[in-house]
Amino acid sequence: MRLEERINTYYSQLSKTDFIISNYIISNKSNIIKMSVEEISSAVFVSAASVVRFAKKLGFSGFSELKYFLKEELDEHEKHDETSTFLLTKDIEETTNLVTQTNLQPICQSIKQASRVFSYGTDWGERVSSEYLVRNFMMADLFIQPVPSLTEMNWLIDKMTPNDLVIIFSYSGERAPVRSVMSQLKVRGIPVISITPLSNNFLSTEATYRLYYKSTQLKQDPNNLKEYNFFTTLNLLAEYLFRYYYDNFM
């Protein structure tokens, strides 16, 4: 189990301070194993005790054990050649682990009980996965309404009620349009299912329910100015959500 999976397992027990710490650790894994608790607490402007409490919430005896866990994870990672096919295999494995560790019962119950369900993908790949989800649920006689773009989403928000449900697919969960949509939905009390890669992002933090997948970018651009994202695991997650609904709510 990777650190991200542990964080997802104990998600409901974590505070906003814990998410600040987790985001820093995930972004600086190779440095963390060389840092003291005090150095980390100083970097994220929290107390050293908060860092130790975070480690214990994840099931470690203390921060030293968390660092050892990270070192083992990094050592294991370095044993493999990071070919694109190896990364795909790992992404599929980790996405499967994430979704099987998530309680899908309340998520599917909310889909079943909603007056209307809307599905919105924030960009091309996310829209394709959203349409894939819509298509699958037709088989279950549940007709989810696809939202083609931000323009139509803004048209619809004022017409939605707390009896509706919105599913949002987003790669970052952080861009301004996503923040705006999520904020408007939350103010109106409209439940939201967020579907994002595993990270501490605005959308998943504010959503009623959250689902995660793992997707590793391929480094094709030497200047790191372009994103090369792939959506195999996002479609896998959408498929898994539908299959759980089909098995338990049909």
Question: What do these coordinates show?
Answer:
By secondary structure, the chain is an alpha/beta fold. The protein has two domains: 3-79, Arc Repressor Mutant, subunit A (Orthogonal Bundle); 100-249, Glucose-6-phosphate isomerase like protein, domain 1 (Rossmann fold, 3-Layer(aba) Sandwich), CATH 3.40.50. It is 56% helix and 10% strand. A five-stranded parallel beta sheet has the order 2-1-3-4-5, with helices on both faces. Helix 4 packs across helix 5 (48-57), helix 7 (84-100) runs parallel beside helix 13 and helix 9 (124-138) runs parallel beside helix 13 (232-249). The model has no long low-confidence stretch (mean pLDDT 89).
Mean of residue pLDDT values: 89
Number of domains: 2
N-to-C SSE string, H for helix and E for strand: HHHHHHHHEHEHEHEHEH
**CATH domain class of the largest domain:** Alpha Beta
The CATH topology assignment of the largest domain is Rossmann fold
List the helices and strands and how they pair.
Elements: H1 3-9, H2 16-27, H3 29-32, H4 37-44, H5 48-57, H6 63-78, H7 84-100, H8 105-113, E1 117-121, H9 124-138, E2 145-147, H10 150-157, E3 165-169, H11 176-187, E4 192-197, H12 202-206, E5 209-213, H13 232-249
Parallel strand pairs: 1-2, 1-3, 3-4, 4-5
